Amino acid sequence: MKTFLNFIPNAAVFVLLAGIFYFGYITDWKMPKFSELTGHALSTESDWCGDHLVPESQCIECKPNLLPKEYDFGYCKEHGVAQCVIHHPELAQLPAGQIPTANLPKYNTADAVNLIHRQRNNPADTLHSKRVQFTSKESVEKSGITVDIVREGEITETLTANGELIFDPNRVVLLSSKVSGTVDEVLKIIGNPVKAGEILALVDASQIGLLKSEFVKNFVQLELQKDNVERLTPLTASKAVSVQEMLQATTALQEAEVNLLATRQQFTNLGFILPQDFGTKDPEQLSEKLRFLGIPQNIVETLPSKNANLFPLVAPFDGVITESTAVRGKVVEASHLLFTVCDTRKMWIMLDVRQEDIPYVKQGQSLVFHSDNGKDTATGTVSWLNPAVDEKTRTLKVRAEVDNSDGKLRGNTFGFGNLILRQEKNAVLVPLEAVQATADVQFVFVRDKDYFAPECPKIFYPRQVVLGAKGEGINAGKVEILAGVLPGEIIAVKGSNVLLAHLLRSNLGAGCCAED
Q1: Domain check: are 17 and 85 in the same one?
Q2: In CATH, what number is assigned to the domain containing residue 468?
Q3: I need a surface site. Which of 19, 130, 346, 468 has the fewest CB within 10 A?
Q4: The pTM is what?
Q5: pLDDT score of 508
Q6: What is the mean pLDDT of the chain?
Q7: Please, what is the end-to-end C-alpha distance for the chain in angstroms?
Q8: At what angle do helices 243-269 and 206-237 cross, to 10 degrees?
Q9: CB-hemisphere CA count at 13 Å for 85?
Q10: 418 within domain boundaries
Q11: Between vectors from CA 171 to CA 167 and to CA 173, what angle results, nearest 5°?
């Protein structure tokens, strides 16, 4: 009896385990819902698409029949995008009443796309075929998404190269005294504007005094020889003077002419201009006329010394003295630099263009130079391209001439130049923040044209785009869209990164919600 009682608990355990195995068999080992245990089963299963985060009954990706996808026109090689709205404007999501063909770009965007190397979209990418759906307008707002309209605006596309603003080397002169001596008077200092022919300084040079004396001597000798030949000529005709004596006189005259001509040439080499006729044959009067040769009377009147050794340094053209080492009493040689005179009315922009950008530069191209101080700008035109690339920097020297009549520009100014490739008054512009990208594709997200219709799903279309130039001035913060959208379409701006994340997430789980 006691043994039988001990067997009852073991039997009960076996019966309980048998019941559990039977229950598991008939329920396929699933726990029943609470409502089923209480006799109140739900009429339907949970209606939620975990991949696209909308009710599954409304999910247009899982149930394409709710909103059929647009016809796939494939990849446009001309513009570098899939579903090209320029070739197929019917794809544009424009508000009611707007004609897609009337909103096409007003310039040839294909030419702009192919003007320079641009990032193209991968033809094999299929993200553009997806759509990003929200349950309601409120869920869009809660996601932090704001929108803006695609607009038209002015844009300038440029090529940037580092460079320098310099004086035209053909209009810069380094002045030094052509003779050794001592600086006697300084009439112009650094920064002074000068006119062509204006005297900058006077150098006391004994060589000048000796040259003037030699000229007077040769001049007098020439006049004597002339008188001698004139005296002997009639005597020769009457044979009162021998032919040999007349020949000697003629030879002496020619020697005197050569000596005077050589002395005159020395004056010319030093920059003096001698009159052909001094109006006198008197040596003293001639010496007095030569004393202040090349020096205007108004300056002569102010000179402390009145010697005949003064050599004037003269400005060769209109300009400004940019450097000066001349001081009174300074001993100078012919090689000593005393003044630098620059004609600042014309300047050069010298740019170093990168080797990969060389094909886009040509003569006649406009450019704008910006100094490193951010204030000075200069506009010029490319006038010369170096035939050879620099061996060390592998850049190409490009020159443009600049007008500086107002004198605002400064030589040896570093900065950069923007070579103008094209200018568009009606460029298609979007906020730069609206553009999103994966490894090989660039997108903007276009809002559905029926977004506000009560029964229509709230969706955004990922649209491949090709970027052009960045905006400046009033269009700063915007970027040109050469292909992918049309003016008038509505795109996501802030929060567009949320749309990209949503797109990539749903793409990873694509197909798991699709109907059989």
Answers
A1: no
A2: 2.40.420.20
A3: 19
A4: 0.69
A5: 64
A6: 86
A7: 64
A8: 160
A9: 30
A10: no
A11: 100
